Input
Amino acid sequence: MSLTTLSLPLSAAKGRLSAHLDLLRLDHSMKQVFVLPGIVIAASLTGQPANASLLWRVVVGLLAVIAVASSNYVLNELLDAPFDRLHPTKRLRPAARGSINIPFAWAQWLAVACVGFLLALVVSKQLFFSVLALWVMGCLYNIPPIRTKDVPYLDVLSESINNPIRFCVGWYIVTGAVLPPASLLIAYWMLGGYFMALKRFSEYRQMGYESASLYRRSFLFYSEQSLLVSVLFYAATSMLFFGAFIMRYRMEMIFAFPFIALLMAVYFNMAFQLDSPVQNPEKLYREPGLMALLGLCCTVLVLTSFVHFPWLQQIFPKSGAH
Output
């Protein structure tokens, strides 16, 4: 047997291994940045000191949520492969190309989830239930007959609810004593809905009704107008509940409003571009202007989480205050 003959199976094995690693979509791990506000706000409201113990919990907690998210990505690729073949870029995914071992991929889905669950349990039961909720939502989103990704509006809401779940992950990395403020969770959910609806709008606008509806069933019920109307609803609802949160818990965050509004406006404008980056949020780091604005927003939010301005209470007194 020649060296060339031996190298062919070896090359095929490496290709198969690479395809299964690609299923995990580790390059999408930047989405777990949505965990960080939960960490910051929990530390601000509870007075948790920044120490080695907190750093350890942050590292283990982030690894847990990354593992569970990767499990959801494996499930998504396995069940979406026939539809991904109809998409201009997603047809290159490993499952759509037929370059994976299907039984092994199903085992991979469960194994990676178990790793995430075990890591979460190391930190706390509350963190375990948070990442479990993230995994369950991935199942509801992808698995028939429920498969919420095929239901108009519910596809956006069920996907974007991962944002408040991620917030809870960050919150329970810091503390397990209390529940996060409901107003902030709703604001976070609706902000996720805003971003996801703009992704749907950009996909619909680029692919057209026929191609989009073949790729995703929910597009049968959408139009550009209905998607933009839903974007407006999500944006308004998010800012309403964020305002309710800052009025009760952290008035200083009012200074972040203009920066958040500008970020949302820039993102809205990007959705109209051909091959818009909003269709692939995991690649938004390639947009330097957007990243600079996001960094500015994060900086203002962190500062206003810990700096106190007593005079704000005189300008915006709480109900019943004299």
